[in-house]
Amino acid sequence: DFEIYNFSLHSLWEKDDKEAELIFGAIERDFGAGGFYSSFFPQEEEHISQRFLALRGTLRRDRLDIASSFYWRRHDDTFLLDRNNPDFFRNDHTTHIYGVHNSFSFQNDTFFDVAFLRESIESTNLNAHSRFKKGFSLGVKEKHIGNFIFSFEEGLDYYENWEYLDTTHLLVRYPVNEAVQFRFSFDRIWRAPSF
Questions:
Q1: Which segments of 7-156 does DSSP mark as H helices, in order?
Q2: Which of 45-59, 69-83, 153-167 has the lowest mean pLDDT?
Q3: CA–CA dist 129, 17 (Å, integer)
Q4: Nearest Cα to 94, choosing from 160, 49, 132, 32?
Q5: Range 62-79 average pLDDT
Q6: What is the pLDDT of residue 98?
Q7: pLDDT of amino acid 190
Q8: In the chain, pLDDT over 70 holds for what percent of residues?
Q9: Distance separating alpha carbons of residues 103 and 58, to the nearest angstrom
């Protein structure tokens, strides 16, 4: 009881120290939920449509790599509690997510990232909402000091609803040989709830 259509396009252009990439995807899904959401209404039905676009450009220099990307996603969802009586309960919602991410990677394995994100929803049951996020992070990629390998990242994000929230990542590895390694990691993360 389903129909699924997927389409994707990927294009990559490279020349010397420059790179450009395009990704586009589309999904159409129509399916019966068969009592998944409610055992009282086994004739549920859902229709999903999604579009995704990402553009990325990279410029590599002797001591600095710069990568910038733009992305956009639209997601449409229609849910019917009873496909035989569509007016009994119907939920339609559309979400948009778009953002920009810039990354600066230095020769000494340090990096600095800056990102901006806008999310919005229009829903028959949840009404209309939107929020904006901006953030940055800096850190060290896999750095070798003696036999130890470590990476570290600290980030700070600002959401309109929660103000400033920080994230931390620390990873230390010690390879004993090719088959055995000791590993320690610490992460402090958060995820904004969906609408």
A1: none
A2: 153-167
A3: 42
A4: 49
A5: 95
A6: 96
A7: 86
A8: 100
A9: 9
> Cβ(2)–Cβ(34) under 8 Å?
no
CA angle at residue 56 from 118 to 188, to 5 degrees? Answer: 55
Taking the C-alpha atoms of residue 115 and residue 133, their distance in angstroms, rounded to an integer, is 8
pLDDT of amino acid 60: 93
Q: pLDDT at position 166, please?
A: 92
Is the Cα dihedral 81, 85, 86, 88 positive or negative?
negative
Residues 89 and 93: their CA atoms lie apart, in Å, by 13
Higher per-residue confidence, 30 vs 163: 30
The single residue listed with the structure tokens 């750095």 is 143
Output the CA angle 5-91-74, nearest 5 degrees: 45
Closest C-alpha to 135, from 154, 120, 150: 154
